[in-house]
Protein 1
Amino acid sequence: MKKKKITVLTGAGVSAESGISTFRDSNGLWENYRVEDVASIEGWYRNPAVVLDFYNQRRRQLKDAQPNAAHRAIASLEQDYDVTVVTQNVDNLHERAGSTKIIHLHGELTKVRPEDRCNERDGFSEAEVFDIGYDDISLGDLAPDGAQLRPHIVWFGEAVPKIEQAIDAVSRADILLIVGTSLQVYPAAGLYRYAGYDTPIYIIDPKDVPVNDRRIVHIREVATKGMEIFKNILKSE
Ligand code: APR
């Protein structure tokens, strides 16, 4: 029998219990760094060394982080459902927890590419993207074509090439689950609107969420506890 489709939209909150800072909580990344300096294309042009250092620090932190029970619970849904994870996160914790179908809307921390590739000119080809694991990259680390290597991250001011795939995954879902995102950054924040007219939407977040929609059930818990509740809801269906 064909498995029901669950699409899981995740944000930084799903990795919070793995010790990875979120962006907009108290003492979050954006309290300690100016977004425009470290996560925008203008910041890259202005001072690439500052940007490289910001991502080097996050890559080193990721090396010691482990997937938490929420990542594992999301991966375990694949036993009974056709699951697509659409994540805003650049960490690799969904992969390491065992999820097999993941769309990284905002890029991947362990990957780099020549700074003149994977953009509008080459149709966002990922042919030149490669994985460096948890190593640093510095100014002067060049790609074979001689271009400076840059993080394979979608910065503010850049296109989100995988948004069409994400829309498709949300529009085809039988159930939409949203875990740990403040729903502040578009186009990701608008994805839930593509869910079907009668598609149930569950949001796991310990805080209020800025959306008001009759299809939404808000599970006001942290991700690990919220996933236990969500899986019990599925069992009772
Ligand atoms: N479990 C579940 N949710 C949590 C937890 C937790 N333990 N801790 C915090 N949260 C929730 C917060 O309440 C908030 O709603 O996770 C959300 C984190 O929101 P943000 O810090 O804004 O992170 P996110 O929504 O992923 O940001 C989106 O913004 O800066 C860009 O590119 C960056 O991908 C990021 C995007």
Protein 2
Amino acid sequence: MRKQPQRIAELLESPRTNIPVVTAGWVKTFRNDRFIALNDGSTLENLQLVIDPEKYPEDIRKKITTGAAVYAEGELVPSPGKGQAVEVQVEKLEILGEADAETYPIQPKRHSLEFLREKAHLRGRTTLFGAIMRVRSRLAYAIHTYFQEKGFIYLHTPIITAIDAEGAGQMFQVTTLDLENPPRNEEGKVDYKKDFFGKKANLTVSGQLEAETYAMALGQVYTFGPTFRAENSNTTRHLAEFWMVEPEVAFLDLHGNMDLAEDFVKYIIRDVMKERPKDLEFLEKRLLQEEKNLPQAKRSPMPLREKLQFVLDNRFVRITYTEAIEILRNSKPFKKKKFQYPVEWGLDLQSEHERYLVEKHFKSPVIIYDYPARIKAFYMRLNDDGKTVRAMDVLFPGIGEIIGGSQREERPDVLLKKMEEMGIDPEELWWYVDLRRYGTAYHSGFGLGFERMVQFVTGMGNIRDVIPFPRYPKNAEF
Ligand code: 4AD
Ligand code: MG
């Protein structure tokens, strides 16, 4: 009869020793025929199991290899060795599942991130991916805690949607039609009336528009779910499937929205620093190690935890788009023609511009607001100048845009005019327009790219390494 194993994180913190314990996990290393370093994923630290080689003959011992699953009962005792406070004197050991040392890919040595991406089903067993996923989990928890404690209502917006007006990127189509032989209408076009939903449907790019409807009923809501964008961006900042956190608040203007965004990201960073200190310490060391051979200019300007503390200690810089353009046009790289893309009022900021502002000019998170109407979505509230909208982007060092948001256009006439200008059929979004007809009020919201936040907190350079199974062009393995 097996007993329910305790989590290694708890055993390592146990205030009592010389007590019977039960543990199970995967072998990290086995040395001197005697010492097993065991990990169960609850913490990055291993639990040392000590076995008596007399009791376990060669043919059993040779099955204790890296990656094997084992179950053990024994006594938790103070450890005489260095490196751990306690260890387990094993009384009963069972090898649950062997891991053939010839073929098991996760050996106790450094593997490249590219290699591990191909072994995404096993990379969670590495110290690095264990740390990343625990940090990710805690961030998700902190997000819910933050909003729940502030009285926000968690709203589940649909994943399948018929809206294709958001303009947030290419969408993935959802259909049950026979693609080899689709039904056609009189004009010879595919007849979506015969499709599952009776119209063309897609995977959502954002829950915002639906969240707005409930913000105008419940006051403060947030969504936190998967979003999908079929843009063919093979970058270290884009995924085809990513998670987005989108609060939406009635009776909140753009400046209140910036305050909320800043308070929110500081809260979740503070929480994860408090709750996952060992994982962050490990991630910090990894980053230092990884950047050791880079020239100074390419290294992170601060160690990971100092960077996080810096974000907590400083108020985010807030500038208008117009001010940002001015700063950029007066900058050295602009004057020396070092920017690849033009800097001109009316054009969108490229990531090289955003990075200059955040990393070189201000050396701090920056919120840019009041963007030209032409480069932003139809739903953003028009300013009195008639040229700019109440948009805001939060830019983070090393990441670029981490949050995008706005105050929404609440005036029906202005909204309809904007939709017309942008070629969006108000009939298709009749319910969205309805909100402006019945009890309309000023309101705001934003979207935080969850993986970009996990990247920032873990210091991982590639977004594909902060989600268990990344989805990107030509990759949907696992
Ligand atoms: O700026 P975006 O497109 O904003 C919206 O979708 C709004 N509807 C949000 C709102 O106001 N409720 O996306 C928001 C954030 C970006 O700032 C970025 O962090 C992240 O989502 N993001 C991505 N993250 C990973 N992969 C992608 N392809 C992403 N596209 C956007
Ligand atoms: Mg954006």
